[in-house]
Amino acid sequence: MVLTVAEVLELPPVRAGRPVVRAGREVLDSPVRWVHVSEQRQPAGTLSGGELVLSIGAAVADPTLDHATYVAELRDAGAVGLVIELGQHLRALPGPLVQAARGLGFPLVELRNAVRFVEITEVVHARILNEQYSRLEFTQRVTETFRTLMVDGAGVSTVVREASALLGQPVVLEDLGHRALAFAGDTAQDVLRDWTLRSRQAPPTGPGRPSGPEGWFGAPVGPRVERWGRIVVPRRDADAERVGLVLSQAADAITVLTRSDGAGPGVGLEARGGLLADILGAAPAMEGSLRARARALGLASEGPFATLVLVGAGERHDRELLGDVASAVRGLGRPALVGPLRPGRVGVVVGCRSAGDEHEVVDALVTRIPAGRVRVVAAAESAETFGGLADTLHDALQTADVADASRDPSTHAVWRSRHLGARKLLWRLRDNSHVLSYVDEQLGPVLRLAEPRRFELLRTLRAYVEADGVVTTFATRIGTSRPSAYARVRRLSETLDRDLDDPPTRLSVFLALLALDQSAPAPRR
After folding, report:
1. Are strands 345-351 and 305-312 parallel, antiparallel or unpaired?
2. Region of residue 510 (phi > 0: left; psi between -120 and 50: alpha; otherwise: beta)
3. CB within 8 A of 86, min separation 6: which ones?
4. CA distance 336 to 334
5. DSSP assignment of 404-459
6. What pLDDT, on a 0 to 100 scale, did the predictor assign at position 372?
7. Looking only at Cα atoms, what is the longest distance across the chain?
8. In the prediction, which pLDDT does 233 show?
9. What rounded mean pLDDT belongs to the chain?
């Protein structure tokens, strides 16, 4: 850390002089760049800023000296304090000198015992030079660390972990939707608590400048013309200079590394899940191999096939969800593949007798899953051939993702692509920086509110735009009277600073709400 005036006064050579602070106590945390010994009446020309001036009082003992001018010139030249040794020229500091220093808030210290100034300068200058060397060494270590990570093609989580280790502070990588993508340095409960809301309250600043009520430090991530996130130290008690250096280089490393970037339970389920995953991601040239593996697992290599993706309800463990779905599929008595596609997503492929048989198979499967175990069931149109399974799996998976992000997944017992409407487009654009910025532009004043106020206003706003501005319908939706409904609309308009009676404005807000659903689904209640 940079040496301050207060720390200099605590050094043994200075403590030997029994220092007493006579003025400027409130600014003793000023950094000391150098120590300068001077007895000149006009020392300003010899200073360059950041010096702590030492004196035996020869200049201030001169009765013709204007003390107020002397102190003002020291301060204006950049001096951070004046230390005067009593005894040889002064028995006590002149009253006008003390008053002038207090009036300007300039640190003035008297030493009541004689000291050797050379000992003070040696100790202080050694500390300053050691600190400068330490910072240079730290800069080289940071540069070498991130250069090595970029050369080795390290993962983003590794970059975040190294940044945290260099700083000894928690570090979080987030996108423009304020979603934490990676973190290191502390437990998730501590670092990521109410992350999105807290992050919105800390707008972007320079890498070494704190932001928001918690004094966060951050640096933007992504090409200069298309930022897609930022890397953050969510702590106030950090060395701003070191944080700025590490975050800047970490952000550059992540930007470079991201210009190019999934797990399976019983042996049978693992094999079927592995095949499903391979079908989903394999190149067309692998179709022959995949057909052979499917036949070996009891699935016909010719269609048609019913293709589904199921999303577990609540916080159910993937293994439990997989067990529920596998049990339901066994009850069908048909050859099938069941396996995890992603965390919380289980894929199912069932052989059908004919293309018209697909809806019957899907309905039979849904009825066999215990109530409350699955949040979303998504189905694609039947795949007529084995080669078409990859496309139908992708379609069902995307439909499940979009439906899971909707406000009311129970709208359809089985979701299909045609049910999604604009949600599908917004889901595909959910990580687009322009869409994320659009959401903040349209809904920012509401999103920055704390819960439960934020949740209630979003619920009310959604009810109004879904009622297409018809107050009678809106009042019915939220269970209130028409006068109360009119009052709520006025409050919403004032909060957003938008005229919600204007149809294009309602459309803009409605699209922003749909985009918000896809980019940051609300907590399941």
Report:
1. antiparallel
2. alpha
3. 57, 92, 93, 110, 111, 112
4. 6
5. HHSS-GGG-SSB-GGGTTHHHHHHHTTT-HHHHHHHHHHHHHHHTSPTTHHHHHHH
6. 78
7. 112
8. 92
9. 83
Tokens of 107: 């640190």
Cα(408)–Cα(415) distance, integer angstroms: 12
Q: What is the DSSP letter of 213?
A: T
Q: In which order are the strands placed within the sheet that holds 51-55?
A: 19-23, 108-111, 81-85, 51-55, 34-37
Residue 172: which H helix or E strand, with range? Answer: strand 171-175
Assign 189 a pLDDT band (cuts: 50, 70, 90). low
Percent of the chain with pLDDT over 70: 92
The amino acid present at 94, given as its one-letter code, is P
The letter for the amino acid at 82 is: L
The pairing of strands 229-233 and 336-342 is: unpaired
CB atoms within 10 A of CB 300: 15
- CA neighbours within 13 Å on the CB side: how many for 473? 9
Question: Both tokens of residue 38?
Answer: 């001077």
Determine contact, residues 196/455, Cβ cutoff 8 Å: no
- For residue 95 the two structure tokens come to 């009253």
- Token output for 54: 């030492």
Quick: pLDDT tens for 127-152: 887 777 777 888 888 999 999 998 88
Taking the chain, what is the end-to-end CA distance rounded to the nearest angstrom?
A: 48
